[in-house]
Amino acid sequence: MSFISDTLFVYRRQQRLILRVPVFLIVGVLQPILYLALFGPLLVKLPAGTLSGGTGSGGTAEAYRFFVPGLLIQLALFGSSFVGFAIISEWRAGVIERFRVTPVSRLALLTGRVLRDVVTLIVQSTVLVLAGIAFGLRAPLPAIVLSYGFLVLVAIGLSSVSYAVALRLKSEDAFAPLINSVVLPLILLSGVMLPMTLGPGWLQAIARISPYRYIIDAMREAYAGQYWNAIMVEGICVAVGTAAVFLWLGSRVFVHENA
Amino acid sequence: MAIIEARGLARDFTSRKRTVHAVRGVDLTVEAGEIVGFLGPNGAGKTTTLRMLTTLLRPTAGTATVAGADLLRDPLGVRKRIGFVPQAIGQTQGGTSDNSLVIEELLDQGTAYRIGREETRRRAAVLIEQLDLGGLDQRFVKTLSGGQRRRLEIALGLVHEPQLVFLDEPTTGLDPQSRSNMWEHIRRLRSELGTTVFLTTHYLDEADALCDRLFVIDHGVTVAAGTPDELKRRVSGDVVTLRVHGETEAARSLLAMAPVVREVGVTDEALRLTVDRGEEALPALLRTLDGAGITMSAISLSRPTLDDVFLTLTGRSLRDDSPGSAGAGPGQAAELAGAGAHGSNGFTGEE
User: What range does the domain containing B242 cover?
Assistant: First the structure.
């Protein structure tokens, strides 16, 4: 089918281009590793159960089962939401229009890029998980595989929206502050660093609007060995739902004849 | 059948509840094998029209058939058959990535048109040769000169051997030598491959030197169409300037009666005659003066330039955009203006 081969064509081109300037990939994964090394140890000393809502045993095990899923989502959120930055310069170079006039599927111009971002995130996440294990993370293998599923869905959704917003704005000066002012509160409200349950009632109420909060919670459940409960179902629904809606929004901008 | 047939093509843009009629109604007929120029001042609607014809922008009204496919019902069919080279100045550049190798860009373009790897390599080798890109295939695009990069962009538009290629401002931003090289390449496209070329330009000399036929667009409508010569003739006719020994007044009344002469004026002892077809009028004028025993000391014939055509049709001059004056300092600009004034007063006809 030509849509799939077009997606793979765009993917290969984008993969080749990003590997020519790998500094962004390295910087992207360096930040969460710094958090892991310089912030993670602070969590180890917390009383048992603080991070897991009472069930944890405390110490290194509880700290990293809590912290690594949070950092993975933070990596995905920052990494995927800023991918649009690069498409603005591609648009300015006329590359987007060049391919829009070829028989290549216009949707594949999006999906090929999103695939590149998903692959990038998987590689970066693996580096982060391995670093986590080095610091003392112990989690079942199925949980780690499951968390990759969540990460892929997050990346699909956020990359799509990021490209769509960037193509609409066509200006780095407008794009960067906009994304920053959306992503930072999302990360803070998702309980990346500390559980939202430690907060006052009003903060917990606001935190319900961040979809990534549900996804982090589900990933933490899996890391603690819980694969099937209400939190997991919520997490899966939110992950699939946001990915589908965001991909649809992104594809509308790419297929639309004037973008 | 015409390779481009457009009727009433129009495009409105709406922003903040204000509607701008960028293109109001463009009619075009282009025959296969022609080099056609689309000429207009900045903002006249050239690029918008081109974007509609290349499926980048959906028209708000009108119909068109491009390379045998219906623009509205079968845009994919249009895309398969046309080549497009975007303009390389202004908002967006010509479509190449800094961090790609030249050969990668050509191979990717082949893949985009579903051409096999080996076949693309063969065609890329031919294009590299034809467009003077020899030895550059393993170079990064960002290391190319402006002219080399532009030629690569033209090559990308030709990899799939389209029957019709759209070039948006192909030579804007190039130095004079690269421009005339590019003209050679475009002429060869037609003579060697039979490709129909549709180009936009705001350089009158380019339109004059390169195009078989021109469409002039202003304020979103086509205001004139024809060969460069037809357009010039339609506007003001040719001007014959001549000097005679002493008998200027006698010559004036004599020539005013000649059937080929539309108008006679006298400036600085020189007679200025407006005629329809200069090259045919000259022998008749010479015979008339000879018959009356009047001897001439000088004669010149000047054709109206496309700039005159433009001024008449659009009320605007394109001079400001010509490459000669772009970037000229105040001193140079004054000098150029002085030279121009001298040229039009003296006997230096344009032909």
Answer: 238-302
